[in-house]
Specification:
By secondary structure, this protein is an alpha+beta fold. It has 17 helices and 35 strands. Strand 23, helix 14 and strand 24 form a beta-alpha-beta unit.
Length: 720
């Protein structure tokens, strides 16, 4: 597979299709879009953990056959992966060494010298990716102003590189003090390593994370090179499979920030792929939310939402604020305690803010030593999967519970493509939950369902409140294979005003990939007092211009026309002496002292929004300057084909039948109407209790709620 469309391919076949691919812990989702007609086809396959590209190839073959589309007509595949996060969590990266300024090799172990849980006597601190015997002091020193205090000992680095190669080290991270101001020593050290050991991979902090704060910068650089070889091998294997299939279009990777990048950029900075899969779902919520309710008295749509993505392994929540996801530049991976900041490895990279917990369809239920029912975070994954999959799993999961409760149709899972074993699910829940707790199988299944709902609503509440949002004021935008099954109860626990279930909810993350622009983020730390007349404004403009030029060059190399490139500039500002900063958007023209009052006003407005008060009358201090360079966002106007599903003239005509399902408000197992999602026309309303089925997901409508279909096939769930 090439990284750009060839002219020959375009002449032979019109390249008008784009594909989004999301690999989850249980399922791999695919979405094939015809950019010319806006029609689409979806695919879903069990993930193949031993080689994730295998499931992608199989799913793509099925979709192309279903749509009767030649592989050569695909012009773009956009992909998100959890490979980086999994490699860091499971410690499956390359043997890595760290070169640090003399006296600073233990920065990754010392960390911030803080206890994230003050009274925990058994506190576990995050373990560095590089053991101490592979961390080395290098004679060199650059001061805070960028001047050289001690020249780099190049010969020392060359001798060390030769020894590391003999010892089997495959990757080297170089993070010198103050290199974000002056990278000359890091560049020279990298050249020395590559001269003596050309097969060793090298990352330098002044390229990966040129920002202040030694611990964060070093940790990010180490993580980047630790996984680089694994990511490159995977992408090479994926490219080989796509080429064998006949795909000649470009392969792009989703970044954690919500932009997409070329394979070359992704391989160079794989740490930026950490949250690439979950980010796509949030992008879909941000893109589709403002269009919800069109033609139903909600012309402005929903610009403020709580994105809720529940798949087979995890559940993710994110805030959509005024149509945009929140972005953070501080992230942690492999936390010892999921909700404790400081318990993981810090990664300094832009990422869509979200909270992720081990609550999915494959989450395993158990009775702990205190006799309490617990669900997750362990997951049955795709292999062996829940007991009802019939693939060797014997432990009860959330999917098993939902099947027992009648929420899932054993004969229509994945549209009938995968039969579910009801007896296997009942056996697992009975043996491991019902009998130990003295409950009926249905009571035990309801307990599993409710416990996972409470886990998710608690996480969502914490996430919203920490960001100054009232969860009771945010409609829930629910998707993922399991999201619509649990959305009603989660939203009710949060007190949310409504729930939105988008069409194609089960593959929404794959859809989200196709809403993302080519984009990349740049940062340069330059701490300076932000005063109007005293600031070196030409240096500020030079710094921002340098980042814009780099971004423009990357995008043009990817085929974006210069006139289509936009740049968003910002600076992180704080009151002098504070420990944390607030992001402030900068004007796009050349900056001068005349802009200072406007910058200060924007800072104070944002500070007031975040903290409801202003700080003391002290000078402002700029810390890190940022630029986001991006191409235009692709338009996404989906057209549903009615060739296989005629729209009903009345809700009763969309009814498929009934089945027993558990609704405690109705007295337990109740004969419940089941509707075909594909037959629902605009304006149709269905009152609960009810079940609405589509191929990749199922919506459960509880008692006292009503679902109405809008003209974009969203289902809007409201309470009576």
């Amino acid at each position: 597979m090439t990284h750009k469309n060839s002219g020959a391919a375009e002449n032979a076949v019109e390249c008008k299709f784009r594909v989004g691919v999301d690999i989850g812990g249980t399922f791999t989702d695919l979405f094939l879009l015809n950019d010319a007609t806006h029609e689409f086809v979806v695919g879903k396959k069990l993930t193949t953990p031993q080689d994730p590209s295998e499931a992608i190839e199989a799913g793509l073959r099925e979709m192309l056959a279903q749509a009767n589309v030649p592989a050569q007509s695909i012009r773009q595949i956009i992909h998100g992966t959890t490979l980086v996060a999994n490699a860091l969590i499971e410690r499956k990266g390359a043997p890595t060494a760290l070169l640090a300024t003399c006296g600073f090799r233990d920065a990754t172990e010392i960390g911030r010298e803080q206890r994230y849980e003050l009274y925990d006597l058994m506190l576990e601190m995050p373990q560095p990716l590089v053991p101490r015997h592979l961390r080395f002091d290098i004679p060199e020193r650059i001061l805070a102003d960028g001047s050289i205090h001690q020249e780099l000992d190049v010969a020392h680095v060359e001798r060390l590189a030769h020894e590391l190669q003999l010892a089997g080290v495959e990757a080297v991270a170089i993070a010198f003090l103050n290199s974000f101001i002056n990278p000359v020593h890091e560049c020279a050290a990298r050249d020395a390593v590559l001269r003596m050991a050309p097969n060793i991979r090298v990352s330098i902090s002044s390229e990966v994370a040129p920002e202040i704060r030694e611990y964060d910068r070093t940790s990010t650089t180490v993580a980047n090179i630790y996984v680089q070889g694994r990511v490159e091998h995977y992408l090479r294997e994926l490219g080989t499979r796509m080429s064998a299939l006949g795909v000649g279009g470009s392969l792009l990777l989703m970044l954690s920030s919500g932009g997409v990048a070329t394979v070359e950029t992704a391989v160079r900075f794989p740490v930026r792929l950490l949250e690439s899969g979950p980010a796509a779902g949030v992008l879909a919520a941000a893109a589709l939310g403002p269009k919800v309710g069109a033609g139903m008295g909600q012309a402005d749509g929903l610009a403020n939402l709580l994105s809720f993505d529940m798949g087979g392994t995890t559940a993710k929540f994110a805030i959509i604020d005024r149509g945009q996801p929140l972005i953070s530049h501080d992230f942690e991976v492999d936390r010892r305690y999921r909700f404790r900041k400081g318990s993981g490895l810090p990664i300094r990279t832009p990422v869509i803010e979200m909270i992720e917990i081990g609550a999915g369809g494959g989450s395993i239920a158990r009775v702990n030593s205190l006799g309490l029912l617990k669900v997750g975070p362990e997951s049955a994954g795709a292999q062996p999967g829940p007991a009802c999959y019939g693939r060797g799993g014997s432990l009860p999961t959330v999917t098993d519970a939902d099947l027992i409760l009648g929420y899932l149709n054993p004969d229509f899972f994945l549209g009938g493509g995968m039969a579910l074993d009801v007896l296997g699910a009942r056996r697992a829940v009975d043996e491991h939950i019902a009998q130990p707790l003295g409950l009926s199988i249905e009571q035990a299944a309801w307990g599993i369902h409710q416990v996972v709902n409470e886990n998710m609503s608690s996480a969502a509440r914490v996430h919203a409140i920490e960001r100054g949002k009232d969860p009771a004021g945010l409609p829930v935008f629910a998707f993922g294979g399991a999201g619509p099954v649990h959305a009603f109860r989660v939203a009710a626990a949060l007190g949310a005003p409504s729930v939105v279930i988008p069409f194609g909810a089960g593959v929404m993350s794959a859809i989200g990939f196709l809403t993302a622009p080519l984009a990349f983020d740049f940062a340069r730390s330059w701490p300076v007092k932000l005063e109007g007349s005293a600031l070196d404004w030409p240096r500020v403009n030079g710094l921002l211009g340098e980042m814009q030029a780099e971004g423009g060059a990357l995008l043009q190399a990817s085929g974006v026309l210069p006139q289509d490139i936009s740049h968003t500039r910002s600076v992180e500002v704080r009151y002098a002496g504070q420990g944390h900063e607030v992001g402030v958007v900068l004007p796009n023209d050349l900056l001068s002292a005349e802009h200072f009052p406007a910058i200060r006003a924007r800072f104070e407005a944002e500070y007031l929004r975040l903290y409801s008060r202003l700080g003391p009358p002290v000078p402002l201090e700029a810390i890190t300057w940022r630029v986001v360079s991006s191409s235009p966002k692709p338009a996404l106007n989906l057209v549903r084909s009615h060739s296989n599903h005629a729209l009903a003239s009345h809700p009763d005509a969309a009814r498929k039948g009934t089945r027993l399902a558990y609704f405690p408000e109705a007295g337990g197992m109740t004969e419940t109407p089941v509707y075909d999602r594909y037959a629902l026309a605009k304006g149709m309303c269905i009152s609960g209790p009810a079940i609405i089925e589509e191929r990749e997901s199922t919506l459960i409508i509880g008692s006292g709620a009503t679902a109405a279909a809008d003209e974009r096939w969203n289902l809007i769930l409201t309470y009576d």
